[in-house]
Amino acid sequence: MRGLYFEEFEVGRVYKHPFTRTVTEMDNVMFTSLTMNLQPLHLDEEFAKNTVHGRRVFNSLFTLALIGAFHVPELTMGTTLGNLGYDEVKFPHPVFHGDTLRAETTILDKRESRSRTDSGIVWFEHRGYNQDDVLVCMCRRVGLMLKKPVDADNSEGEA
Question: Which Gene3D superfamilies did the record assign (predicted)?
Fold first, then answer.
């Protein structure tokens, strides 16, 4: 399985990724602890009961990482050279333990690299939704993507 080469990305195309993931208390506590985020909103149920949410809120950086990963098998597996940056990140609705998340990606734009002949630049918008189809995360990012190798046409169908 491989992702798409630069030439295969179509501006405006929307990909509804087939994967879903139910996020758990363990995910939240482990990620929050591993990243040394001491925010009681993520770790302390008694503290969180007295917030506007009434319970612990999932660590938003875990949400961003998960939503940003749903596209990998379909779009960038083995064909990306890396992220160039995030232009915008929003969390319009909190994520809670037990929510099931899914993602969609829109190809916003693309252009050839000005400094590399083997790659191009693609602008992505990733959107994450919970089980009720409520938008929980949106990010726009820029990635450096490999161009199709010259010999790829000859080798893809070979066994």
Answer: Hotdog Thioesterase
